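Subject: complex prediction, re-run

Hi both,

The earlier run crashed halfway through, so I resubmitted it with identical inputs.
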Amino acid sequence: MIDLKLLQKDFDAVSMALSRKKVDATLIEALKEKNEALKTAKSSYERAQAAQNEMSKQFGLYKKEGKDTAQLKTTLDANKSQITLFLDQQREAEAALDALSMNIPNIPDADVPEGQSDEDNVELRRVLEPRHFDFTPKEHWELAEQNGWIDFERGVKVAKSRFSVSYDMGARLERALINFMLDFNRARGFTEVSVPSLVNRRTLEGTGQLPKFEDDLFKIEGEELFLIPTAEVPLTNLYQDEILEAESLPLLMTGYTSCFRKEAGSAGRDTRGMIRQHQFHKVELVAITTQEQSEAVFVQMVQCASDLLGALELPHRLMQLCGGDLGFSAARTIDLEVWLPGQNCYREISSISNTRDFQARRARIRYKDGGKNMLAHTLNGSSLAVGRTMVAIMENFQNGDGSITLPSVLNSYL
RNA sequence: AGACAGGUGGCCGAGUGGUCGAAGGCGCACGCCUGGAACGCGUGUGUAGGGAAACCUACCGAGAGUUCGAAUCUCUUCCUGUCUGCCA
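This time it finished cleanly. Structure:
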């Protein structure tokens, strides 16, 4: 949630910043109005309630002293109906404000580049030269099937489209990658955490998936539980409603989970292969920091993911997302795109975001700083999507005969 | 899943309709005491919103209700414990 006080204080700046994220100015205007309306309703209610409390005390004293309470009761009853009225107004205003504010995305950082779509993202740097092939590199689904690593048909049979099954070396590579990534992150100070794959509504609101993106989530019938779309959701919300000690920050966590996404708006995109699946594996990085620490931790997380790709000898580039391509909760994001020789292009394999205090405000994650409670900063990033990493390995390490020579760092994991 | 018992401040724990944001204790902070410490004594010690401030409002798991007035009464719900059932 954005800072409503900031909105009140500097409407133009907030409005301007949000327009870079394609938020309509009238929406922000409405937000400001609702906020004012709520304050008015609230102060009316509180004034009436204060009078009621005072008179109720009187009432008690009268009773004790045996005085006549009939007249006081009439005044109280009249005031009570006022209170009910004001309270209704307050609740109405609150509901309206909530409905609006929970659907407003985060304000991008000042230095986020202008732009509408991923075409306007800015390339920061490239790491490792793509290898030269003296044959035409194949796409990963061809290699996966040829090597018997992935079975696309049987996944569809037991579930539905966009589900697949890994076999033999495919399954083992998956497991090896997960272990390798977790160990890699652990060595860089991230604590390994294993979390639930089902979470409640409150938790998804905390990180910003709800209320706006319910269509993208798998929901358990008859329960208020959803399958997580990323480990970011349970990991970040581990500390919801908590006030942490500043000295205990930053909290650095890494966790492996399956991720589940409906891919509601992606009909027809990446239908072939394992780039876009309803279920995929991912190792995630999450950090909870003080406001001063978050920038440095962000850089650290980006470096961690880039180094991981480096260790796997996968050529990639770092892209800073423009305002229009930024996700709902993010103030700044750097995507890591891995080189796929089969597709002859760079594809997103990791996305690292600083949400600043946006999620912390929703999830009420705070820390004590010299007796004062401050909103924490939360950051998240994939330490690589496992499926896409397998795609990248297959395409980059393929030989002319379709066989695959795996990167040597994985030797001890296979 | 069924039966019973509970959910109160950082922690323990009192409070069954009024002046209770909540006794008492522990912990913590500051001061006194001391050569220094312990002990002892004193003061203070939740969160959120509004206000320049005085101060006001809300919060005793959550939500709704009864009442002039609810931590206290009623209903719903969530969570925890114990026993029974089921199960990796």
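Residues 339 and 346 of chain A are 4 Å apart (CA to CA).

- K.
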